[in-house]
Amino acid sequence: MDPNQYHQIYQYLHQQILPTFNTSREKQKFINLCNNFELKLNYLYKKNKRKNGQLLKVIRNFELEPLLYMMHNDPTAAHFAVDTMFNKIKDRYYWPQMYENIREYVRSCDSCQRRGKSKANQLLHPIAVHGPFYQVGIDFVGPLPITP
C-alpha cells in the first residue's frame, strides 16, 4: 500500500487525525474508507467483507518483496502458479493491485521460466477386464549379478 495512504489511515484510526480535504465529500469518502480498516497491535488490518470481517494484514510497499519471496520461492512454497498463489495470499493479506503484483512476480521468477508450464496428463485408456486372470502382465529384469 502507498506509504502516504497507509499513514493517513493509520493516523485517523489511531488518533482521529484527518488529513486536509478540499470538500466535505472527499472527507466523507476518506472516513468511509477508514471504516474498512482496523488497528490491532499497531498494525493496520483490512476487514474482509467476504469472510465475516476476518482481518487481513495490510502490506506496505517495503514488505511486499519479502512476502512474495516467502510465498513463492521459499522451499515450503513450491513455486505455485499465479492463481494458486493469489488464492493462498488473499485470505491473509491485503494490498492494492494484489493480483497484478503476484502475476508479475511469478512471470519474472527465473526458476519458473526455466521449468515452464507442466504438461497436462494424457487421458487414461482402461483395459476392459472380462474375468479373473483374463490378462496377466509380467515385468522381466535381468540378468542380475550374483551376490556373494
Task: Tell me what the structure shows.
This protein is α+β, with helices and mostly antiparallel strands. It has a domain at 59-116. It is built from 6 helices and 4 strands, in the order ααβββααβαα. It has helices at residues 3-15, 24-34, 61-72, 82-89, 98-107, 110-115, and strands at residues 37-40, 43-48, 54-58, 93-94. It has a 4-stranded mixed beta sheet. Strand 2 (43-48) and strand 3 form a beta hairpin. Helix 4 packs across helix 5. The longest helix has 13 residues, at 3-15. The radius of gyration is 27 Å and the shape is elongated. The N and C termini lie far apart (69 Å).
Could you give a short account of the major beta sheet? 4 strands, mixed
What is the ordering of alpha helices and beta strands? HHEEEHHEHH
- Stretches with pLDDT under 50, minimum 5 residues: none
Range of strand content: 5-15%
Name the average pLDDT: 90
- Measured between the Cα atoms of the first and last residue, the distance is 69 Å
- Helix content class: 40-55%
Count of individual beta strands: 4
Radius of gyration, CA atoms, in whole angstroms: 27 Å
The DSSP helix count reads: 6
Q: Could you say which overall geometry the principal axes of the C-alpha atoms support?
A: elongated
Give the helix/strand class. alpha+beta
